[in-house]
Amino acid sequence: MKNHKTNKANISYIIPIILVTSCFALWGFANDITNPMVKAFSKIFRMSVTDGSLVQVAFYGGYFAMALPAALFIRRFSYKAGIMMGLALYAIGALMFFPAKEIGNYYPFLIAYFVLTCGLSFLETSCNPYILTLGDEKSATQRLNFAQSFNPMGSLLGMYVAMNFIQNKLNPMSSEERNLLPEEQFTILRDADLDILVEPYITIGIIIAIIFLLFAFTKMPAAKQKEEITFKTSIKKLIKSSNYRNGVIAQFFYVGAQILCWTFIIQYGTHLFTSQGMEEKTAEVLSQKYNIAAMILFCCSRFICTFLMRHINPSNLLRILATAACFFTICTITLQNIYGLYSLVAVSGCMSLMFPTIYGIALGGLGNEAKVGAAGLIMAILGGSVLPPLQAMIIDCGSIADIPAINLSFTLPLICFVIIAIYGNNIYRQRYDA
């Protein structure tokens, strides 16, 4: 009789888990259709790499700004309400690309990105802890890793759309040639490119609106609740937890490292191939293929790591892969040939388990405080906003001692991976060497 009840409970989770897991793919799509836009906007509006990186500032700034309000909203209502609010803002932000195109200015696009990622902040603040509650607490981190495995699938689709429906369709004129155009010709070229750029965003906005309706008409199970405590008490408990505090710091640097590696792999490859005599447009397309290869490796590695967690402790696996990421990043910095690009692709295989593992470890044992704790971990996504402009500034400064600036700029993700390795090592020693 007991087994029958257990099976029935598990069956009741199937449709909600499928719907919630789909959200992981949705924000993966948004992340990775956006990364190549740094380069695209730089060309379309004739800006520096630093100015183009404001896309990432607006994108990840929205995550930071809305994470705590999202947590309070979820505490007041429910995880389902938080997910629906996230989908609504996601759709609105995507559809705002149309009026931004009509205005023809860079800054309305930044506002659209900010609104869109306010929605993503709601989604991540809701979906990550919600998945942890839908099942046995002992397998919560493994379950989150599995759900997160669908995130890179959305990312791959985002990369595919960015490459085939945006980058390949934009005018192939180089940045230098655009700078020489008279203002009238530049305006015509800019508007034509913007027409191409906004189409995928309007399409995804319509799709998200449909998914919103699916959630609205689907009954979702309530999260398992422990005693309700005040927001102030939750904050005090979170601050006292060293695992949580250090987890937020590690998450900040992980997201920063991820965005640095995925945003600037195109610049890294473009520099490498153009230095060998390849045309800029061809080099960009080829570099995007390496970016897709990195995401495929990331996706496969996440499934592999989810399996390995049955046999290897998550914190031990975290420190092993963070150390490997340090090695490959050093190769990315020091090698000025195709092996440097191969090393940069390999870094993605090491990063695959980091976000959900840090997330699961940091929230482990927090109970109902996880609703507020999730906000801190999502606010840590600010690392994806703060660090890219720093890397862009290094790139704009030029080469040093015959080492290309793009290579030197990967010193930043190297520092990030060192911090993550230290976190994984400290958690493992604390729990298993005692």
Provide a brief overview of the structure.
By secondary structure, this protein is mainly alpha-helical. Helix content is 81%, strand content 0%. α5 (79-95) packs antiparallel against α11 (183-216).
Main attributes of the structure:
434 residues; Growth Hormone, Chain: A
Break the fold down into its secondary structure elements and pairings.
Elements: H1 2-34, H2 37-44, H3 49-52, H4 54-76, H5 79-95, H6 97-103, H7 106-133, H8 140-148, H9 151-167, H10 175-179, H11 183-216, H12 231-240, H13 242-274, H14 280-308, H15 314-334, H16 338-351, H17 354-363, H18 370-379, H19 383-397, H20 405-408, H21 411-432
Helix pairs in contact: 1-7, 1-9, 4-5, 4-7, 4-18, 4-19, 5-7, 5-11, 6-7, 7-8, 7-18, 8-14, 8-17, 9-11, 9-14, 13-14, 13-16, 13-17, 13-18, 13-19, 13-21, 14-16, 15-16, 15-17, 15-21
CATH superfamily: MFS general substrate transporter like domains
CATH topology tier name: Growth Hormone, Chain: A
Integer average pLDDT: 83
Instruction: Give the CA-based shape.
Output: globular
Helix/strand order: HHHHHHHHHHHHHHHHHHHHH
Q: What this model shows, in words?
A:
By secondary structure, the protein is mainly alpha-helical. The protein has one domain (2-218, 230-432): Up-down Bundle (Growth Hormone, Chain: A). 81% of the residues lie in helices and 0% in strands. It is built from 21 helices and no strands. The model is unreliable at 1-11 (pLDDT under 50).
